[in-house]
Structures are given as structure tokens and as C-alpha cells.
Structure prediction request, 218 residues.
Amino acid sequence: MDVSAPTPPPDGWPAPWDPAQDLILTPRRLRGLVHPIRVRLLHLLEADGPATASQLGRRIGQSSGVTSYHLRTLAELGYVVEDTERGNGRDRWWRTSFRASGFTFRSPDDPGDPETIELAEQYLRMVTASYYERMRSYVDSLAGRMAELPTLPWTFHEYSIELTHEEARTVAGQVRDLLDRYRREPGAPLTRDGTTRAVFQFQLLPDELPDEASGEPS
Prediction:
């Protein structure tokens, strides 16, 4: 499979994507990746740095044999490589081939077709399911955080807004610029006293319920 960077749109890739460092996924490039374990493994290697199949298996509740199989598949696709500097002859370490990954429909040479749009839907469902599981896990943990609840900063909201497509791109860029000030490099330890490893989830979507989006009467 060819994982070279797809053709950029006329106005370039949105910041902070860099085709020389980042895996820019388009509908056609999802072939082989659309599997919940592979998507999860790729995310873990991006977020936490190199790991062995056994370490990753413990993280996702799978055997090392299962994770080894999917890591080899990701390697065949060009998404991960063996980290030979860490291998010791007993354990194989794996790392991503890229700094980060992101999905887009904007590549002129791969805007999607009926077959690949279905792949894109499957991939995005897996990604959004992982977002939901992260939020649900936090909510489920509240009973064990009773003493902390009055002072915890973690939060999520939904705001009703009105904006043009260009304004939406501007808002997304401003949020990215702000978050870059706090970015943690993959696998890097916390470097400042009092900091906590956290994740920021950002959703900017049209305000359409399923029946509204399909035009079906409620």
C-alpha cells in the first residue's frame, strides 16, 4: 500500500499538519486500517511512544499474539515500524512512522467514492466511539473521586453558535494555536510540577439531529 502523502488541496493542508511528519489519512488510504484494534494500537503508539506487543496487549485487554498480528499488519501498511534501537532479541518494540495522524476529505486526488466513503464512516465511528468511552470512563469514576470533586477542573460543554464555514476554520485554528502551548510530546514524561496528563476533545459540527439531516419527518 502506498502511504506517501496525498495531493494537498489548493490552499494547503490545515495547520498543524505536515506531510513530511504526519500521516494524512484519506478515504482510500483507510483500506486495511479500519479495524478497532489497529486504530487503537496506532493511537496508543502516537500518544505514548514505542511499546512491545505485550505492553500494548495489556493496555487493550488482548493477548500479545493478537496485538503482534495487528502490529505486523500496520507495519505492512507502512503505519508503524520496528524500533530496532529498543529491541533486545526477546521483545520487539514498535513505533509509529509518523508524528501524528489525521483524517481528511480535502485531498483533490481522493475525495472519496461510494466504497471508500463507507470505509471513512467505519473509521470515524471507531474514533468517535473511543471519544465516548473516554468520557464515559471519567463519569463512571466520579464516585471514587468524592473528595476531589469540588476542585477538579475537568469539564465538557455544548455551545450553540452561528458561523460561516470560514469562521469555523478560524475558530478551529485558534483552538489549535491555544492547545499547542500545552502539547506533550508522545511518550514524554510530565516535566512541570503540579501538571496532570490530560486530553482535550474538540468537536465542531453542524447542529443536525438524525431526522433533520436526512429530511425525514420526526
Notes: The mean pLDDT is 89. The first strand starts at residue 23 and ends at 25. The domain at 1-152 is CATH 1.10.10.10 (Arc Repressor Mutant, subunit A).
